[in-house]
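[Q] Does anyone have a clean structure-token version of this?
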Amino acid sequence: MKDLVYSEKMDSVERFRFNASVVDVFPDMINRSVPGYETMIGFSGIIADRYIQPQTNCYDLGCSLGASSFAIANHVNHFDYSIIAVDNSPEMTERFAKIKQRQITTVPIDIRCMDVMDTDINNASFAVMNFTLQFIAPELRDEIIKKIYAGLNPGGALMLSEKIIFDSEKEQSFIEQNHYAFKKSNGYSELEISQKRSALENVLIAETVSEHLERFKRCGFAEAYKWYQCLNFVSFVAVKK
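[A] Here you go.
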């Protein structure tokens, strides 16, 4: 379904929420808004295959409609593990469950409607957070990354994808202009772009690449790499030794 959530002029733009209207158009919304999204989702499975061990858990934290979970289930070359998919939006998890009924997967996917901050991470060899941390309050971000680190087995990894900002005002402006052009090229009007930006203000709080890398180190990860970037969207892999 085409994303028309912000296509009509609004007297007052509400804070962005993953409600039913967003869930209905979510695949279209994110593919037209996030350059490189399909590449990052596809690599969720490719990277997971390197780290997921038999008889362990894989966590998809902020799973939305399960794109990362399905990519992992379809790419990992063994079946002796479980995927635990977590999202705090009941509309998302309910729709995910309906999609899952139509999918054939070789591993169990346990869908849980709950806050990732309240999720126990146990016996994990891989965790993925695709565009989730940016919606968590900055003062809580160390806590969730430390929790993931503690729940990972040695040799396990976290894949984290996020929108970022830049220290340089010129670079920030250059990237923002190109991101705006990307959205325009995908059919979004100036009104839609403006209203969605207003809805996301103080809801999606982005950080710099260096802030992410410093957090990984601070929270215990021995290695962390930025493996992908397209404009102001990046993906990292952090490994527990």
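[Q] Thanks! Anything notable?
[A] The CA atoms of residues 159 and 237 lie 5 Å apart.
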